[in-house]
Amino acid sequence: NTAAAWTASAVKEELLKKYPPKVARKRAASILVNEALENSTPEIQANVRTIPGVITMRGCTYAGCKGVIMGPTRDIVNIVHGPIGCSFYAWLTRRNQTDPGPDGQNYMPYAFSTDMQDSDIIFGGEKKLKAAIQEAYDLFHPKGICVFATCPVGLIGDDIHAVSREMKEKLGDCNVFAFSCEGYKGVSQSAGHHIANNQVFRHLVGTEDRAKEGEYKINLLGEYNIGGDGFEIDRVLKRCGITNIATFSGNSSYDQFATAHKADLSCVMCHRSINYVADMLETKYGIPWIKVNFIGAEATAKSLRKIGQYFGDKALQDRIEAVIAEEMAPVKAAQAEVRPRTQGKTAMLFVGGSRAHHYQELFAELGMKTIAAGYEFAHRDDYEGRQVIPNLKVDADSRNIEEIEVSADPVAYKPRKSAGEMQGLEESGFAFKDYDGMIPDMDKGSLVIDDLNQYEAEKLVEIFKPDIFCAGIKEKYSIQKLGIPMKQLHSYDYGGPYAGFKGAANFYREIDRMVNSRVWSYMKAPWQENPELSATYVWE
Ligand code: CFN
Ligand code: HCA
Asked: What CA–CA distances, in Å, run from 171 to 129, 141, 161, 217, 345?
């Protein structure tokens, strides 16, 4: 069977065939054949519990809070309250890079843990946590210490918030706060993002009222500096004369969060992980937000122009155009060089909560077609677009998370633009939150699958034999063993940056090397060449 012989609906049926009826029914709602509907986007089930027994690609709530949102900030000491495994396996696995800055404060290479033992589970771990906070303070005198709950902490009921409050008071000059981000709190990493966002906003954002230098001040939300992406974006912004005062949270610092309320505009890169902070900054401080995307050269240019349009200054806009013209030349040259070899090839992308969408643009710039894609833990708005479900903020796994009250103490803030100017902008066609979502951006007949699992991944590869498959470390080797090159779009394997202009050219070359390597066609497992080697199981 070749891919051409299959319709997308037949593939969906094939994927479901093996499941017991109840599982098939549940999975069917998460697998969508993309069809053009007249006035709406097809609906997909997302952000629901993974079915027990299937091998999911997802991670846990603790991973989303400690690893994703808080992990990339260098000068906060992150203490994991729990057994050592949860600390060790979250230790620098995400390839978020940082520049330690003039003060050299960088605690990211450390793994701080209370290393809970059986006796702590039985008698409680609060004393041990207090001692760990004191020890970290005595050793490093950091501005902030954050505490993260792992599953057993929630189960035995240690009050990490009370301990943190007590230690904050005792230490005096160190902001100590905690996250109830037990792994089981939600259905995926996504709940962890929400918990992290709320606590950072409540305990840190706006705590320092210093003026910030620079013109056209923005916050860059949802950029984690994987493989140096944040460095490249900062380079481009700087060339344009735009001042990034706080990145949440790649290459960021305590002070950046504390003064983020001084920005004129928030630019949201990964909507899934940080839309909560964007909304809270808008509600409490009147800072509007726009959706940007720096993955893809065209997307980068478009995002810069959008920032220019928001500020509306001719000098800024001219400078942005000059930078785009200059940066695009080598990008176009790189594109022209590889395109004869990449044009028409196919890709599958199953990643997190935004990259499976954003990276489709980069593949399109290579002339490659995304035939199937999906997120691990995104919500329906990431699939269908924000406009489709206008006020959808809290759903499924977020339901039990306390919403922080942001409007109770609005801070006097003078927005850069008056209400009239804002309205004028919108009337001129400026769309603040024009986030389309993955589904409307994909071709008719393509497959969109949420929370893909190991079985379905292998089936898809078997049927379509894509030229490249993109996912994470757990998928990497099982896919490569099927003879298909596999690119990690979480860690970038050992590469990057892929954001911005230089990143785009970098990505083109990397993908060219991968999809045109002949090594994959030579790959045959021993039992494929010598069938007598394959194992046979005899059941007595
Ligand atoms: S850096 Fe981001 S871009 S934050 Fe999120 S949704 Fe993860 S860690 Mo892995 S690579 Fe991935 Fe996104 Fe936003 Fe990263 S696609 S799964 S939680 N993600
Ligand atoms: C996480 C982090 C992760 C895992 C990547 C992977 C990352 O979800 O806990 O599965 O390869 O980007 O490091 O998404």
From this structure: 14, 10, 15, 33, 59
Please write the tens of the pLDDT for every residue from 336-365: 999 999 999 999 999 999 999 999 999 999
Residue with tokens 């409307």: 440
**Per-residue pLDDT, 536:** 62
The CA distance from 280 to 479, in Å, is 41
**Is 0.90 surpassed by the pTM of this model?**
yes
What is the 3 state secondary structure string of 10-49?
A: HHHHHHHHCCCHHHHHHHHCCEEECCCCCCCCCCCCCCCC
Residue 394, pLDDT > 90, answer no
Query: What is the pLDDT confidence band of residue 286, given thresholds at 50, 70 and 90?
Result: confident
Q: Is 112 exposed, middle or buried (0-12, 13-18, 19+ CB in 10 A)?
A: buried
Spatial contact of 353 and 378, defined as CB atoms under 8 Å apart? yes
Strands 447-449 and 31-33: antiparallel
Q: Is the CB of 300 under 6 A from ligand 2?
A: no
Record the tokens describing residue 113, joined without a space. Answer: 């843990």
Furthest CA-CA distance within the chain: 81
Peptide bond into 497 cis (omega under 30): yes
Cα 42 to Cα 440: distance, rounded to the nearest angstrom? 9
Grouping H, G, I as helix, E, B as strand and the rest as coil, residue 449 is strand
Contact 472, 57 (CB under 8 A): yes
Atom of ligand 2 nearest to the CA of 67: 9
DSSP letter (8 states) at residue 221:
E
Ligand 1 neighbour 144 (Cβ under 6 A): no
Task: Note the ligand closest to the C-alpha atom of 58.
Answer: 2
Q: What residues are annotated to the active site?
A: 60, 63, 94, 193
Q: Which residue's structure tokens are 């633009």?
A: 417
